[in-house]
Specification:
Blueprint: E1 16-22, H1 25-35, E2 40-47, H2 52-55, E3 57-58, H3 66-76, E4 80-83, H4 86-90, H5 93-99, E5 103-105, H6 109-116, H7 118-128, E6 135-138, H8 141-151, E7 155-159, E8 168-171, H9 174-185, E9 192-195, E10 202-209, E11 214-216, E12 221-222, E13 225-227, E14 231-234, E15 239-242, H10 251-269, E16 276-285, E17 288-295, H11 302-309, H12 314-323, E18 338-345, E19 358-359, E20 374-379, E21 382-385, E22 388-391, E23 395-403, H13 406-418, H14 433-436
Bound molecules: adenosine monophosphate (AMP) and glycine.
Length: 443
Amino acid sequence: MRTQSAPRAAGTLRPVEILIIGSGGREHALALALAADPAVTALHVAPGNAGTAEVATNHDVAATDPAAVTALAQRLGVDLVVVGPEAPLVAGVADAVRSAGIDCFGPSAEAAALEGSKAFAKQVMAEAGVPTAMAHVCTTVDEVALALDQFGAPYVVKDDGLAGGKGVVVTEDRAAALAHAGACLARPDGAVVVEEFLDGPEVSLFAITDGTTAVPLVPAQDFKRAGDGDAGPNTGGMGAYAPLPWAPPGLVDEVMARVVQPTVEAMRHRGTPFAGLLYAGLAVTRRGLRVVEFNARFGDPETQVVLALLRTPLAGVLRAAARGTLGLLPPLEWHPGSAVTVVLAAPGYPEAPVTGGVLTGVPAAADAETGWDAAWVVHAGTARHDGDLVATGGRVLCATARAADLEGARERAYDLLEGIGLAGGHHRRDIGLAAAQGRISVP
Ligand code: AMP
Ligand code: GLY
C-alpha cells in the first residue's frame, strides 16, 4: 500500500487531499480518475479493494457509521471526502463530515432519500412536474392486487427501500408479482411501489450538482439483468458503455431541462438541497422520456465508462460541487470515442454469490496499458490474501476499455477479460453489442 503522491500543484492547481468511501468498482474508477489528477496530492480509500490499494492508501472503516468516517477524515487531514455508495449517504455520512468542517461530495441524508425511498422520489417528481411511470405506493397485498390489475402486465413491483438494485421485479406472472410484494410487505414498515411498465431503451444520465447548478456527464447504458439478451434476474449491473450512438439529438439537454434542473430546484425549495451526483435512470419510451429511478450517487458500473471518457481533471469538479461553486467552472471536456466495461461476477451472483475464488491473469496497475486506446481492470470485490488475488464480492471486477468506436472498445474489453480466470465466474457477452450493431431504436 502506498499513498499516491503527485507533484505539488503549481500555478492555478489547488492541491487537494481526498478520502473516498466505498469498496466497489465505482470507487476504484473514482480513485483511478482522481489519482490521474495532478491536483490530488494524497488519495485514501476506505474500505477500498485490491485495486484501490494500487493507487491509494486503503483504510478500514465502517462506511455507514457517520462518526467513524468523520474521525477517519479528521485523522487523515483530508480536504474532501467523496462518498461512493448510497448506504453511507442515507445513513448521514455526508452530513457528519460537513458538520466537522470538511468538504464532502455527496448529498445529505434528507436529500439522499431521492434514492433511499422510491415513494419520496415519486412525490418530488410530482411536485417538480418530472415525467415518470404512473405508480401506486401500497402497504397491503390487497392494494397491490388492485394496482397490478389497474396497470396490467408486464407487472412492475418495487421494494420501497434500498435493495442494491435487486428489489425490483418485472414479470408477466401476476402470482410472482404478488409474491414479491408479499415478501417486501412482510418486513417492518414494508411498502412497495407498483408501476406501469415502461417500454423503450434505458439511459443512465449523471449530473454533478452543487444544489443549484447542475452539469451533465455523458449518457451511458447499464445492463441490469444477469444474462445475455436481458435474461435472468436483476443485478447491480453487469456492464455498461458510453456514449450512446443511438440517443436522439438533444437527449441530454431534454433530460437536464425536464428532469435534472426541476428536481434540483424542487429539492432546494424543500429546504433539502441535493448536492452531489444526481443519477437519473430513464426510459426513452414511445410516449417520451420517463424517469425509472433516481440514485443519489455515481452508478456502478456506468462510472467506469463515464470517467474513462472525462478529460477534465475530476478533483476540481467534485470539490466545486461540494463547495457550491460549480457555476464558476468551465465546461467539461471529453475524450472522443467510446468506452465499454464488462463485469466479471462470482459464481452464483446475484442470488447466492460464492466468494473466495482465486483470480488469475489480472494485470497489475503498474503493467496496465497506457495511452488513449487502452484496456484496464477496475476492481470491485477483490482482496489480496497471501499474495493471491481473491474474489470477495458478487461483482468481482470490470474489464474496461476505451477506443475510437464502440466495436473497438468492446473488442478490447473482451480481450482483456479472456485472459482473466475465476472458477465458475460469469459475465455477459453482449455488453454494447446491440448498440454497436445499430439494433437499438427509440419507439
Ligand atoms: P430500479 O431499481 O427502479 O432502477 O429498477 C431496476 C430495473 O428494473 C430498471 O433498470 C429497469 O430495467 C427495470 N424497471 C424498473 N421500473 C420499470 C418500469 N416501470 N418499467 C419497465 N422496467 C422497469
Ligand atoms: N448500475 C446501476 C446502479 O448503479 O444503480
